[in-house]
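Researcher: Let's continue the batch. This sequence belongs to DNA polymerase IV, and it's 364 residues. Same format as the previous ones, please.
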Amino acid sequence: MPAPPRKILHVDMDAFYASVEQRDEPSLRGRPVVVAWRGARSVVCAASYEARVFGVRSAMPAVRAERLCPDAVFVPPDFVRYKAVSRQVREIFARHTDLVEPLSLDEAYLDVTHAKTGLASATETAQAIRAAIRAETQLTASAGVAPNKFLAKIASDWRKPDGVFVIRPHQVEAFLTPLPVGRLPGVGKVMEGKLAQLAVATVGELRALELPALERRFGRWGRRLHELARGIDEHPVQPERPTLQVSAEDTFEHDLRLDELQPHILRMAEKAWAGYQRELQAHPGRVARTVVLKLKTSDFRVLTRSLTSPSPPRSMEEVARIACALRARVEHAEGTRYRLVGVGLAGFVDAENLGMQAELFGVS
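Model: Same format as before. Here are the C-alpha coordinates for DNA polymerase IV:
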Protein backbone atom coordinates (compact mmCIF):
# COMPACT_ATOMS: atom_id res chain seq x y z
CA MET A 1 0.00 0.00 0.00
CA PRO A 2 1.37 3.48 -0.83
CA ALA A 3 2.04 5.75 2.11
CA PRO A 4 -0.74 8.27 2.80
CA PRO A 5 -0.03 11.82 1.61
CA ARG A 6 1.88 14.05 3.98
CA LYS A 7 0.08 16.97 5.58
CA ILE A 8 2.40 19.96 5.27
CA LEU A 9 1.85 23.52 6.42
CA HIS A 10 3.77 26.60 5.39
CA VAL A 11 3.13 29.35 7.92
CA ASP A 12 4.24 32.86 6.97
CA MET A 13 3.90 35.90 9.21
CA ASP A 14 2.26 38.85 7.45
CA ALA A 15 4.65 41.77 6.76
CA PHE A 16 6.45 40.57 9.88
CA TYR A 17 8.97 43.29 10.76
CA ALA A 18 6.60 46.10 9.79
CA SER A 19 3.73 44.48 11.67
CA VAL A 20 5.83 44.23 14.83
CA GLU A 21 6.61 47.94 14.54
CA GLN A 22 2.94 48.82 14.04
CA ARG A 23 1.93 46.63 16.98
CA ASP A 24 4.45 48.24 19.32
CA GLU A 25 3.85 51.82 18.18
CA PRO A 26 0.11 52.55 17.79
CA SER A 27 0.78 55.79 15.88
CA LEU A 28 2.15 53.68 12.99
CA ARG A 29 -1.03 51.65 12.52
CA GLY A 30 -2.73 52.26 9.22
CA ARG A 31 0.28 54.18 7.89
CA PRO A 32 2.81 53.11 5.22
CA VAL A 33 5.75 51.77 7.23
CA VAL A 34 9.11 50.89 5.69
CA VAL A 35 11.60 49.00 7.86
CA ALA A 36 14.98 50.27 6.66
CA TRP A 37 17.80 52.59 7.51
CA ARG A 38 17.74 55.75 5.46
CA GLY A 39 20.63 56.28 3.07
CA ALA A 40 21.77 55.70 -0.48
CA ARG A 41 23.08 52.19 0.31
CA SER A 42 20.21 50.96 2.47
CA VAL A 43 17.68 48.38 1.30
CA VAL A 44 14.14 47.73 2.51
CA CYS A 45 13.91 44.95 5.10
CA ALA A 46 10.10 44.95 5.14
CA ALA A 47 7.13 47.06 4.12
CA SER A 48 3.65 47.24 5.63
CA TYR A 49 0.71 46.47 3.40
CA GLU A 50 -0.10 50.18 3.33
CA ALA A 51 3.35 50.79 1.78
CA ARG A 52 3.06 47.88 -0.63
CA VAL A 53 0.11 49.60 -2.30
CA PHE A 54 2.67 52.10 -3.65
CA GLY A 55 4.91 49.33 -5.00
CA VAL A 56 7.35 49.24 -2.09
CA ARG A 57 8.84 45.75 -1.64
CA SER A 58 11.49 44.04 0.45
CA ALA A 59 15.07 44.21 -0.85
CA MET A 60 14.50 47.30 -3.02
CA PRO A 61 16.79 50.30 -2.43
CA ALA A 62 15.46 52.55 0.33
CA VAL A 63 15.85 55.63 -1.88
CA ARG A 64 13.54 54.07 -4.45
CA ALA A 65 11.01 53.22 -1.75
CA GLU A 66 11.08 56.85 -0.65
CA ARG A 67 10.40 58.00 -4.21
CA LEU A 68 7.51 55.57 -4.60
CA CYS A 69 5.96 56.49 -1.26
CA PRO A 70 7.08 59.96 -0.07
CA ASP A 71 4.79 59.76 2.98
CA ALA A 72 6.25 56.48 4.21
CA VAL A 73 7.47 56.28 7.79
CA PHE A 74 11.00 54.83 7.85
CA VAL A 75 11.79 52.75 10.94
CA PRO A 76 15.26 51.27 11.56
CA PRO A 77 15.12 47.47 12.01
CA ASP A 78 15.26 46.02 15.52
CA PHE A 79 16.21 42.38 15.08
CA VAL A 80 16.38 41.71 18.82
CA ARG A 81 12.63 42.34 19.04
CA TYR A 82 11.89 40.41 15.84
CA LYS A 83 13.83 37.37 17.08
CA ALA A 84 11.96 37.45 20.39
CA VAL A 85 8.60 37.35 18.59
CA SER A 86 9.91 34.62 16.28
CA ARG A 87 10.72 32.49 19.34
CA GLN A 88 7.14 32.96 20.58
CA VAL A 89 5.78 31.78 17.25
CA ARG A 90 8.06 28.74 17.16
CA GLU A 91 6.90 27.76 20.65
CA ILE A 92 3.37 27.72 19.25
CA PHE A 93 4.49 25.50 16.37
CA ALA A 94 6.14 23.09 18.82
CA ARG A 95 2.81 22.47 20.59
CA HIS A 96 1.51 20.88 17.41
CA THR A 97 4.50 19.04 15.93
CA ASP A 98 8.19 18.39 16.47
CA LEU A 99 8.73 18.50 12.68
CA VAL A 100 9.31 22.23 12.18
CA GLU A 101 11.73 23.55 9.57
CA PRO A 102 12.32 27.30 10.00
CA LEU A 103 13.19 29.12 6.79
CA SER A 104 13.70 32.54 8.39
CA LEU A 105 12.44 34.49 11.38
CA ASP A 106 8.97 34.79 9.86
CA GLU A 107 8.23 31.53 8.06
CA ALA A 108 8.49 27.77 8.53
CA TYR A 109 7.36 24.42 7.21
CA LEU A 110 5.50 22.09 9.56
CA ASP A 111 4.74 18.40 9.01
CA VAL A 112 1.43 17.80 10.83
CA THR A 113 0.72 14.36 9.36
CA HIS A 114 0.71 13.08 12.94
CA ALA A 115 0.03 16.25 14.92
CA LYS A 116 0.47 16.17 18.71
CA THR A 117 -2.88 17.82 19.34
CA GLY A 118 -4.93 15.18 17.56
CA LEU A 119 -6.96 17.72 15.61
CA ALA A 120 -9.09 16.20 12.86
CA SER A 121 -7.32 17.78 9.89
CA ALA A 122 -4.31 19.78 8.82
CA THR A 123 -6.65 22.67 8.06
CA GLU A 124 -7.88 22.70 11.67
CA THR A 125 -4.27 22.62 12.84
CA ALA A 126 -3.40 25.59 10.64
CA GLN A 127 -6.38 27.54 11.99
CA ALA A 128 -5.45 26.68 15.58
CA ILE A 129 -1.87 27.85 15.02
CA ARG A 130 -3.00 31.12 13.44
CA ALA A 131 -5.48 31.74 16.27
CA ALA A 132 -2.76 31.19 18.89
CA ILE A 133 -0.36 33.52 17.04
CA ARG A 134 -3.02 36.23 16.97
CA ALA A 135 -3.91 35.78 20.66
CA GLU A 136 -0.36 35.58 21.98
CA THR A 137 1.52 38.01 19.73
CA GLN A 138 -1.27 40.30 18.42
CA LEU A 139 0.05 39.58 14.91
CA THR A 140 -1.41 37.72 11.95
CA ALA A 141 -0.05 34.84 9.90
CA SER A 142 -1.08 33.20 6.64
CA ALA A 143 -0.89 29.48 6.05
CA GLY A 144 -0.79 27.08 3.14
CA VAL A 145 -1.93 23.47 3.56
CA ALA A 146 -0.84 20.89 0.98
CA PRO A 147 0.58 17.38 0.48
CA ASN A 148 4.15 18.69 0.12
CA LYS A 149 6.44 21.63 0.83
CA PHE A 150 6.52 23.48 -2.44
CA LEU A 151 2.74 23.44 -2.83
CA ALA A 152 2.25 24.57 0.78
CA LYS A 153 4.57 27.53 0.18
CA ILE A 154 2.65 28.60 -2.93
CA ALA A 155 -0.63 28.17 -1.05
CA SER A 156 0.41 30.35 1.90
CA ASP A 157 0.72 33.31 -0.44
CA TRP A 158 -2.69 32.74 -2.01
CA ARG A 159 -4.87 34.47 0.59
CA LYS A 160 -2.45 36.89 2.21
CA PRO A 161 -2.74 38.61 4.55
CA ASP A 162 -4.35 36.67 7.39
CA GLY A 163 -5.70 33.78 5.33
CA VAL A 164 -5.52 30.03 4.78
CA PHE A 165 -5.50 28.22 1.45
CA VAL A 166 -5.79 24.45 1.16
CA ILE A 167 -4.64 22.29 -1.76
CA ARG A 168 -5.95 18.74 -1.33
CA PRO A 169 -4.24 15.85 -3.13
CA HIS A 170 -7.00 15.49 -5.76
CA GLN A 171 -6.81 19.26 -6.50
CA VAL A 172 -3.08 19.45 -7.24
CA GLU A 173 -3.17 19.10 -11.02
CA ALA A 174 -6.06 21.52 -11.52
CA PHE A 175 -4.43 24.06 -9.21
CA LEU A 176 -1.05 23.95 -10.94
CA THR A 177 -2.20 23.85 -14.58
CA PRO A 178 -2.91 27.60 -15.12
CA LEU A 179 -0.05 28.91 -12.98
CA PRO A 180 2.85 30.78 -14.65
CA VAL A 181 5.98 28.64 -14.59
CA GLY A 182 7.63 31.42 -12.57
CA ARG A 183 5.62 30.28 -9.55
CA LEU A 184 7.60 27.02 -9.41
CA PRO A 185 10.57 27.01 -7.01
CA GLY A 186 13.86 27.57 -8.80
CA VAL A 187 12.29 29.01 -11.94
CA GLY A 188 13.59 32.56 -12.16
CA LYS A 189 13.66 35.06 -15.00
CA VAL A 190 16.45 33.25 -16.86
CA MET A 191 14.70 29.87 -16.74
CA GLU A 192 11.39 31.52 -17.67
CA GLY A 193 13.11 32.87 -20.78
CA LYS A 194 14.50 29.44 -21.69
CA LEU A 195 11.08 27.84 -21.26
CA ALA A 196 9.48 30.61 -23.33
CA GLN A 197 11.74 29.54 -26.19
CA LEU A 198 9.93 26.18 -25.97
CA ALA A 199 6.53 27.96 -26.01
CA VAL A 200 6.05 27.15 -22.32
CA ALA A 201 4.52 29.85 -20.14
CA THR A 202 2.26 27.87 -17.78
CA VAL A 203 2.73 24.80 -15.64
CA GLY A 204 0.19 22.97 -17.79
CA GLU A 205 2.28 23.63 -20.89
CA LEU A 206 5.38 22.45 -19.05
CA ARG A 207 3.58 19.26 -18.03
CA ALA A 208 2.92 18.50 -21.69
CA LEU A 209 6.66 18.19 -22.41
CA GLU A 210 8.10 14.68 -22.22
CA LEU A 211 10.77 13.90 -19.61
CA PRO A 212 13.47 12.92 -22.18
CA ALA A 213 13.06 16.27 -23.94
CA LEU A 214 13.40 18.18 -20.66
CA GLU A 215 16.46 16.17 -19.63
CA ARG A 216 18.14 16.73 -22.99
CA ARG A 217 17.58 20.47 -22.68
CA PHE A 218 18.17 21.02 -18.95
CA GLY A 219 19.98 17.94 -17.63
CA ARG A 220 19.09 16.89 -14.08
CA TRP A 221 17.12 20.10 -13.61
CA GLY A 222 14.83 18.84 -16.40
CA ARG A 223 13.73 15.94 -14.19
CA ARG A 224 13.00 18.34 -11.36
CA LEU A 225 10.87 20.49 -13.68
CA HIS A 226 9.02 17.35 -14.79
CA GLU A 227 8.24 16.51 -11.14
CA LEU A 228 7.23 20.02 -10.11
CA ALA A 229 4.83 20.32 -13.05
CA ARG A 230 3.07 17.25 -11.64
CA GLY A 231 3.08 18.47 -8.05
CA ILE A 232 5.72 15.96 -6.95
CA ASP A 233 8.05 16.94 -4.11
CA GLU A 234 9.40 14.26 -1.80
CA HIS A 235 11.62 16.53 0.29
CA PRO A 236 10.73 15.98 3.97
CA VAL A 237 10.43 18.69 6.58
CA GLN A 238 13.86 18.84 8.23
CA PRO A 239 13.66 20.19 11.76
CA GLU A 240 17.42 20.31 12.35
CA ARG A 241 19.22 21.84 9.41
CA PRO A 242 22.92 22.11 10.31
CA THR A 243 24.42 25.58 10.26
CA LEU A 244 26.68 26.04 7.26
CA GLN A 245 28.04 29.51 8.04
CA VAL A 246 27.79 32.24 10.67
CA SER A 247 28.57 35.62 9.17
CA ALA A 248 28.15 39.37 9.32
CA GLU A 249 28.40 41.90 6.51
CA ASP A 250 27.99 45.62 5.96
CA THR A 251 27.48 47.94 2.99
CA PHE A 252 29.49 51.16 3.18
CA GLU A 253 28.11 54.62 2.72
CA HIS A 254 30.95 55.30 0.25
CA ASP A 255 33.01 52.81 -1.76
CA LEU A 256 36.42 52.07 -0.25
CA ARG A 257 39.82 50.83 -1.43
CA LEU A 258 41.12 47.44 -0.33
CA ASP A 259 43.67 49.05 2.00
CA GLU A 260 40.88 50.98 3.76
CA LEU A 261 38.89 47.92 4.78
CA GLN A 262 40.73 46.79 7.92
CA PRO A 263 38.58 48.61 10.53
CA HIS A 264 35.44 47.33 8.85
CA ILE A 265 36.80 43.78 8.72
CA LEU A 266 37.54 44.01 12.43
CA ARG A 267 33.99 45.18 13.13
CA MET A 268 32.45 42.35 11.06
CA ALA A 269 34.77 39.80 12.69
CA GLU A 270 33.51 40.89 16.09
CA LYS A 271 29.88 40.46 14.99
CA ALA A 272 30.53 37.11 13.34
CA TRP A 273 32.36 35.88 16.42
CA ALA A 274 29.41 36.86 18.64
CA GLY A 275 27.07 34.91 16.36
CA TYR A 276 29.44 31.96 16.42
CA GLN A 277 29.44 31.94 20.23
CA ARG A 278 25.63 31.77 20.19
CA GLU A 279 25.83 28.87 17.74
CA LEU A 280 28.28 27.05 20.04
CA GLN A 281 25.89 27.46 22.95
CA ALA A 282 23.04 26.01 20.91
CA HIS A 283 25.13 23.21 19.34
CA PRO A 284 28.24 22.70 21.49
CA GLY A 285 29.32 19.61 19.56
CA ARG A 286 30.06 21.48 16.30
CA VAL A 287 32.93 23.86 15.58
CA ALA A 288 33.98 25.92 12.55
CA ARG A 289 37.41 25.62 10.94
CA THR A 290 37.10 28.03 8.02
CA VAL A 291 37.30 31.84 8.03
CA VAL A 292 35.67 33.51 5.03
CA LEU A 293 36.21 37.03 3.70
CA LYS A 294 33.49 38.34 1.37
CA LEU A 295 33.86 41.49 -0.74
CA LYS A 296 31.54 43.17 -3.21
CA THR A 297 33.04 45.59 -5.69
CA SER A 298 31.48 48.89 -6.73
CA ASP A 299 30.22 47.15 -9.90
CA PHE A 300 28.56 44.42 -7.77
CA ARG A 301 31.02 41.59 -8.38
CA VAL A 302 31.16 39.31 -5.34
CA LEU A 303 34.55 37.91 -4.30
CA THR A 304 35.18 35.39 -1.52
CA ARG A 305 38.43 34.13 -0.07
CA SER A 306 38.73 31.55 2.70
CA LEU A 307 41.26 29.74 4.86
CA THR A 308 40.65 26.38 6.55
CA SER A 309 42.90 25.57 9.49
CA PRO A 310 43.52 22.16 11.14
CA SER A 311 42.05 23.57 14.35
CA PRO A 312 39.17 26.04 14.78
CA PRO A 313 39.95 29.70 15.53
CA ARG A 314 40.06 30.34 19.27
CA SER A 315 39.28 34.04 19.45
CA MET A 316 37.73 36.98 17.68
CA GLU A 317 41.22 38.42 17.24
CA GLU A 318 42.36 35.29 15.42
CA VAL A 319 39.34 35.47 13.08
CA ALA A 320 40.03 39.15 12.39
CA ARG A 321 43.72 38.51 11.73
CA ILE A 322 42.97 35.73 9.23
CA ALA A 323 40.24 37.77 7.51
CA CYS A 324 42.53 40.77 7.11
CA ALA A 325 45.30 38.55 5.76
CA LEU A 326 42.92 37.11 3.16
CA ARG A 327 42.93 40.50 1.44
CA ALA A 328 46.34 39.62 0.06
CA ARG A 329 44.67 36.88 -1.99
CA VAL A 330 42.30 39.30 -3.73
CA GLU A 331 43.49 40.03 -7.24
CA HIS A 332 42.14 43.43 -8.21
CA ALA A 333 42.69 46.04 -10.86
CA GLU A 334 44.23 49.34 -9.87
CA GLY A 335 41.57 51.64 -8.50
CA THR A 336 39.05 48.92 -7.63
CA ARG A 337 36.72 50.01 -4.87
CA TYR A 338 34.45 47.97 -2.65
CA ARG A 339 30.92 48.63 -1.44
CA LEU A 340 30.55 45.71 1.00
CA VAL A 341 32.62 43.55 3.30
CA GLY A 342 31.65 40.42 5.20
CA VAL A 343 33.38 38.00 7.56
CA GLY A 344 32.12 34.48 8.24
CA LEU A 345 32.94 31.24 9.97
CA ALA A 346 32.18 28.07 8.03
CA GLY A 347 33.39 24.50 7.58
CA PHE A 348 31.49 23.20 10.61
CA VAL A 349 32.58 19.77 11.80
CA ASP A 350 31.84 17.56 14.76
CA ALA A 351 34.23 18.43 17.59
CA GLU A 352 34.92 14.78 18.42
CA ASN A 353 35.79 14.01 14.80
CA LEU A 354 38.05 17.05 14.74
CA GLY A 355 39.95 15.64 17.70
CA MET A 356 40.34 12.31 15.93
CA GLN A 357 41.60 14.04 12.77
CA ALA A 358 44.10 16.09 14.76
CA GLU A 359 45.44 12.95 16.41
CA LEU A 360 45.61 11.13 13.08
CA PHE A 361 47.63 13.89 11.40
CA GLY A 362 49.75 14.78 14.41
CA VAL A 363 48.16 18.19 14.97
CA SER A 364 48.27 19.56 18.50
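Researcher: Any comment?
Model: Residues 355-364 have pLDDT under 50 and may be disordered.
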